[in-house]
Amino acid sequence: MDKELHRIAITGIIYNDEGKYLITKRSLQKKAFPGKWTVPGGGINTDDYIETEPTNAAGQWYNVVEKTLRREILEEVNVEIEHPEYLLDLTFIRPDGVPVLILSYMCKYMSGDVTVDGDGGDTIDFAWATLNELKSYDLIDGILEEIEMVDKIRKNR
């Protein structure tokens, strides 16, 4: 039987108390959606858990997704978030044929001054923008709709 390989990524739709959302611009060298605006995140790697003590005696690790999301956001934009809340999942096939599963979370900004890699890194720019301002950015298809979902959830609380 052929082994199917998947890339698992986690994204965080980060919002602040001013009603703005953090978006980032992808490097022009990225395999999928180069130069497009998106939300911070990245892939789960076995290093996110295999090098740590299992959570229980059965050799299992709990909360790997949240740990990875926090690590990726800190690495990518230097921001810490409050407890992330699951929003949705989606899949697509990258141009190189690799299937990607994305787990999307809504996250309240907690602390940190945003910084990005710039030229040569994964992320080359960032912006804090209102929902209306986001409409003028070249976002990856679906990102605006995800942010609209988060905005609606926040307003209904």
Write the layout of secondary structure elements.
Layout: E1 7-15, E2 21-26, E3 37-38, E4 41-43, H1 64-77, E5 80-81, E6 85-93, E7 99-111, E8 123-129, H2 131-134, H3 143-155
Q: Could you please describe the fold and organization of this structure?
A:
- The structure is a single chain.
- With 157 residues, this protein is α+β, with helices and mostly antiparallel strands.
- The protein is 20% helix and 32% strand.
- The chain has a single domain, classed as Nucleoside Triphosphate Pyrophosphohydrolase.
- It has helices spanning 64-77, 131-134, 143-155, and strands at residues 7-15, 21-26, 37-38, 41-43, 80-81, 85-93, 99-111, 123-129.
- Strands 1, 4, 5, 6 and 7 form a 5-stranded mixed sheet that branches. A 3-stranded antiparallel sheet has the order 3-2-8.
- 24% of the residues are buried.
Which value, in Å, is the CA radius of gyration? 16 Å
CATH topology: Nucleoside Triphosphate Pyrophosphohydrolase
Structural class: alpha+beta
Shape: globular
Instruction: Please tell me the CATH architecture by its name.
Output: Alpha-Beta Complex
Span of the ends, CA to CA: 48 Å
List keywords for this structure.
single chain, 157 residues, alpha+beta, Nucleoside Triphosphate Pyrophosphohydrolase, five-stranded mixed beta sheet, 3 helices
